């Protein structure tokens, strides 16, 4: 289930690159349509279960705020930031947030997991670091850092979820409201005014399937794994997204990509490998 969630997260990146990078839809418009589609599908599933969807519970409101922070911060940051640098800041920030949350809640990740995280993050830096000089406005760096914290805290909240579908649906409803306000402010009263039909289709797919259902599944997985494990496995997302770009966007693979992918996945495997206790023997 965790592997399936990581594939869904990576698919979001591929869909975003195809839509926004292909100039099919604006960044904030993509975020808004994504939130609306996710909210619509999840609320429909709630109604089919004949269940209620309380929105004013403090925990759900906080989850909505954190999801909104991630979605808007992510979109705003990429208005003036290289995609590789953005990915490094995002996933590095998520890693720090998740490990900090693990320590605050009493989890004590073993040394092996810290080492694995360091190796995987090094591989990620090798994979996404842009060539030549790197420069980004301070506001875009701050926006991506806020997005990382938002997603990290959103994931930490999910560790206590007893109703993954309801919690995710409520978060998307709140994100839809905030996203609509953000787009209206940016465009001066008009929304989704530069979107093509393919761009809208990609945004709807991202929202309804790989975001809405993917995030609900993530909330179902989180209570079963530790915060540090949740942070570590997410470093696989850029690698899966890079492979998805090769398969679906005709992007050219390189030796750098293969080497970095091996380092990232090797670091994750090292960090997750069960420690042998003293006195145990091979079976």
Characterise this structure.
This protein has 283 residues and is mainly α. It has helices at 2-19, 27-48, 58-77, 83-104, 111-128, 138-158, 164-187, 197-221, 227-233, 237-248, 255-272. It is built from eleven helices and no strands. It is found in: Membrane. Residues 139-269 form the EamA domain. Pfam families: EamA. It is a multi-pass membrane protein.
Summarize the structure.
By secondary structure, the chain is an all-alpha fold. It contains eleven helices and no strands. The protein has one domain (2-272).
Figure out the total of helices: 11
Q: What share of the residues lie within helices?
A: over 70%
Q: How many domain units?
A: 1
Unreliable stretches: none
Q: Helix-strand pattern, N to C?
A: HHHHHHHHHHH
DSSP E strands, number: 0
Q: What is the averaged pLDDT score?
A: 86
Strand content: under 5%
Radius of gyration: 19 Å
What about the largest sheet? none
- Principal-axis shape equals globular
Distance between the termini: 27 Å
Classification by helices and strands? mainly alpha
Transmembrane segments: 28-48, 60-79, 85-104, 111-129, 135-157, 169-188, 200-222, 229-249, 255-273
Organism: Roseicyclus mahoneyensis
Protein name: Threonine/homoserine efflux transporter RhtA
Domain EamA: 139-269
List the helices and strands and how they pair.
Layout: H1 2-19, H2 27-48, H3 58-77, H4 83-104, H5 111-128, H6 138-158, H7 164-187, H8 197-221, H9 227-233, H10 237-248, H11 255-272
